[in-house]
Write a structure and sequence with these properties.
By secondary structure, this protein is mainly beta. It contains one helix and 14 strands.
């Protein structure tokens, strides 16, 4: 039987990491709970250290969308690119909220895939995610898309963009996690 000895220094380091990952919440006096977080990333994972780096905020991101459909693929796709223009490094992970504006109301995209670890976006760096959908064919119902509403991960402020994909499509519409589309 093999025993592992843990030193006090290892325990303190482990507690520090847990503390860095802890979300804190406070009441802002209006009954609304406001959350803040600091994200810690293991530098050995190749994404650099994010201890003390705030999450990426909507107002610090430049958000654009482009058709990324590859001829011959069974589904059509749009790539949404988030570029850090805040002047500071920020951390991002998870899924953006994605809604397509249609004549019949908003259509929310379903999340697919597995989110990766948080990554640090240096000022000027970009990350992208994909939106996939079956292109409308001659049969079935069609949805007329007029716009794209994107809410960055862990944010509540949205950005409305022109829809760069097919003007009519079928559902379901799916969104991958941040980092799931190439740039």
């Amino acid at each position: 039987m093999k025993f592992t000895r843990t030193t006090t220094r290892s325990v303190v380091a482990g507690l520090s990491l847990v503390s860095a990952l802890t979300l804190t919440a406070c009441n802002d006096g209006t009954g609304v709970r406001v959350s803040t977080s600091t994200i810690a990333i293991d530098p050995s994972a190749g994404s650099g250290s994010a201890v003390g780096v705030d999450k990426c905020r909507t107002n610090g991101l430049e958000i654009s969308a482009s058709d990324s459909t590859v001829e011959g693929d069974p589904d059509s796709s749009v790539a949404v690119t988030l570029t850090n223009g805040s002047g500071l490094d920020c951390a991002i992970s998870g899924y953006a909220g994605v809604d397509l504006t249609t004549g019949e109301g908003d259509l929310s995209a379903r999340r697919t895939g597995r989110a990766s670890a948080p990554r640090v976006l240096k000022d000027g760096d970009s990350v992208a995610f994909g939106i996939t959908y079956p292109a409308h064919d001659a049969g079935g119902s069609e949805i007329h898309v007029t716009g794209l509403v994107v809410t960055p991960p862990h944010e509540t402020e949205s950005v409305t963009l022109d829809w760069p994909g097919a003007s009519t499509l079928a559902s379901p519409v799916e969104v991958g996690p941040v980092g799931s589309a190439g740039q």
